[in-house]
Design a protein that fits this description.
Number of domains: 1
CATH superfamily: Cobalamin-binding domain
Largest sheet: 5 strands, parallel
Structural class: alpha/beta
Order of helices and strands: EEEHEHEHEHEH
Distance between the termini: 13 Å
Radius of gyration: 14 Å
CATH class: Alpha Beta
CATH topology: Rossmann fold
Strand content: 15-25%
Length: about 140
């Protein structure tokens, strides 16, 4: 896989895959390890990752639109209602943009998110599995 390139004039970085992933936390719990590790794995796989951190549903939607992303990743962190609200707003505002979620996701929440078409990766999920899902969801494979 080719390395990302930097435009000499603007300094903008182009991802090797040409695909952009928005990563956001739906809760204010301050637990950053998981999202940071996933973002790093996606960058290492050639994705351009936009980390917006802790955000309300409306902020996630606006960032997805502004950044013209190909995939949205949400860290649920046990905040299921907030994540569901974000998913519903993303789906109604960003036609066809796939969503995956991870973090502390109780079984009932996993079922609820999957029923909305979200792929869910709870604690213990393997990075290669998440990266492969990002490739599949963005049409790389």
């Amino acid at each position: 896989m080719s390395e990302p390139t930097t435009n000499a004039t603007t300094g903008a970085t182009t991802s090797a895959t040409g695909k952009r992933v928005l990563m956001a936390k739906t809760g204010l719990d301050g637990h950053w390890r998981g999202p940071t590790i996933v973002a790093t794995a996606l960058r290492d796989a050639g994705f351009e990752v936009i980390m917006i951190g802790m955000a309300r549903a409306e902020e996630v939607v606006q960032a997805a639109i502004d950044e013209d992303v190909d995939l949205v990743g949400l860290n649920v962190g046990g905040h299921v209602d907030v994540a569901v609200r974000a998913v519903e707003q993303i789906q109604s505002s960003c036609d066809g943009v796939p969503i995956f979620a991870g973090g502390v996701v109780p079984p009932h929440a996993k079922r609820k998110l999957e029923a909305l078409g979200v792929e869910v990766y709870p604690p213990g999920s393997q990075l290669p599995e998440i990266v492969e899902a990002a490739r599949r969801l963005t049409g790389i494979i």
